């Protein structure tokens, strides 16, 4: 592709006439002329850094917001959900490795301008956009322009992130974003590096930054024998409660064998239930189990009167007893975007 077909990257600096440093995520890749960054989504051409994902999603679907999973954002509504090739992590358990580990151009994509994405949603009476499937950071400029176009139409903008975006681009993006799901894959930094290639500290910083500016939900995937240490889970829940507040929903997600971890069994429901108990003892109000259809912990209960206020079956809402922003049984304000 020639530079005239590409979109210049937003966050980078020139180290000399031809060498650049990408500042978009924690990796801070130094990229030589003609090379690409660790995510494979940014290339340096003659000292200018370009994004390779702009306008080229590889996955565009209509999904319930519950799939992200957002359980406290407009229950029962759909989002036009999209992702691109590539990712800045290499998680051993990645379920979307077939495009997240690929460079843009290595996998079939569709051509969609930001305006086309927004119009595609509006044509289907969908009022939300969700950046998901791969890490949205690697499509930052595209995501930003779609989010701006969506906000001009008064739409809801959401994303699911691994939390590794640098603070400055995140700060610039958040005014256009209503809600973010962030993965907190473990509370052990060494394990974070081993399992994902990422680090714990940038994720904790992202969680705190998102919490100040947008609605936040957290996903913790529990992988048997890997990220199932109950003491780590307890430390993580206490940190969330003390630093982010008890109203942030936490989803303990069930692992299924995938990618490089096909030898492991699925997470036991018993372990997920133990994690929920730990989280509730740490003071968290909204604790869920994800990927176990029909489990009672997929429902929402009022933290004040303990009545069931949202009854779900799979990703679908069977009953919603929230009126305005409040529990219809006792009037307690339920945190979220209703
Ligand atoms: S976005 Fe890609 S190129 Fe930029 S620092 Fe992160 S991994 Fe490296």
Arithmetic mean pLDDT: 97
CATH superfamily (homologous) name of the largest domain: Aldolase class I
How many domains, as an integer? 2
| Category from helices, strands and their pairing | alpha/beta
The succession of helices and strands, N to C, reads EEEEEEEEHHEHEHEHHEHEHEEEEEE
- The portion of residues assigned to helices is 10-25%
Report on this structure.
It is a single chain. This protein is an alpha/beta fold. It has two domains: 3-51; 59-299, Alpha-Beta Barrel (TIM Barrel), CATH 3.20.20. The chain contains eight helices and 19 strands. The strands form five sheets. It has an eight-stranded mixed β-sheet. The relative contact order is 0.11. Bound molecules: iron/sulfur cluster. Residues 22, 24-25, 27-29, 37-39, 41-42, 88, 137-138 line the site of iron/sulfur cluster. Iron/sulfur cluster binds at residues 22, 24-25, 27-29, 37-39, 41-42, 88, 137-138.
Question: What is the strand and helix layout of this fold?
Answer:
Blueprint: E1 7-8, E2 12-14, E3 20-22, E4 30-31, E5 42-45, E6 48-51, E7 59-64, E8 78-83, H1 97-100, H2 114-123, E9 128-131, H3 140-152, E10 156-161, H4 167-173, E11 179-183, H5 189-196, H6 200-213, E12 215-222, H7 230-243, E13 250-254, H8 269-281, E14 287-290, E15 300-301, E16 308-313, E17 316-320, E18 322-323, E19 326-327
Parallel strand pairs: 8-9, 9-10, 10-11, 11-12, 12-13, 13-14
Antiparallel strand pairs: 1-6, 2-3, 3-4, 5-6, 7-8, 15-16, 16-17, 18-19
Residues 22, 24-25, 27-29, 37-39, 41-42, 88, 137-138 line the site of iron/sulfur cluster.
């Amino acid at each position: 592709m020639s530079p005239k077909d590409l979109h210049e990257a937003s966050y980078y600096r020139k180290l000399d006439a031809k060498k650049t440093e990408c500042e978009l995520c924690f990796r801070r890749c130094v990229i030589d002329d003609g090379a690409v960054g660790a995510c494979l989504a940014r290339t340096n051409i003659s000292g200018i850094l370009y994004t390779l994902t702009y306008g080229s999603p590889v996955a565009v679907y209509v999904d319930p917001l519950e799939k992200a999973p957002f359980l406290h954002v407009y229950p029962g509504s759909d989002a036009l959900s999209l992702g691109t090739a590539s990712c800045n992590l290499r998680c051993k358990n990645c379920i979307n490795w077939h495009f997240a580990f690929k460079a843009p151009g290595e996998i079939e994509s569709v051509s969609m301008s930001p305006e086309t994405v927004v119009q595609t949603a509006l044509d289907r009476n969908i009022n939300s956009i969700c950046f998901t499937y791969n890490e949205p950071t690697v499509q930052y400029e595209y995501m930003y322009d779609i989010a701006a176009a969506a906000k001009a139409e008064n739409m809801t903008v959401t994303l699911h992130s691994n939390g590794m975006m640098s603070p400055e681009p995140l700060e610039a993006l958040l005014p256009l974003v209503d809600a973010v799901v962030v993965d907190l894959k473990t509370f052990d930094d060494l394990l974070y590096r081993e399992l994902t290639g990422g680090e714990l500290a940038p994720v904790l910083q992202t969680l705190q930054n998102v919490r100040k500016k947008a609605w936040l939900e957290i996903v913790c995937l529990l992988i048997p024998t890997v990220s199932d240490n109950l003491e780590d889970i307890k430390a993580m829940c206490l940190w969330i409660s003390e630093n982010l507040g008890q109203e942030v929903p936490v989803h303990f997600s069930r692992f299924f064998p995938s990618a490089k971890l096909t030898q492991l069994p699925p997470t036991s429901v018993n372990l997920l239930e133990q994690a929920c108990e730990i989280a509730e003892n740490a003071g968290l109000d909204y604790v869920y189990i994800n990927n176990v259809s029909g489990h009672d912990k997929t429902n929402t209960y009022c933290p004040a009167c303990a009545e069931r206020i949202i009854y779900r079956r799979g990703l679908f809402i069977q009953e919603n007893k929230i009126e305005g922003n409040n529990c219809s049984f006792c009037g307690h304000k339920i945190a979220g975007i209703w």
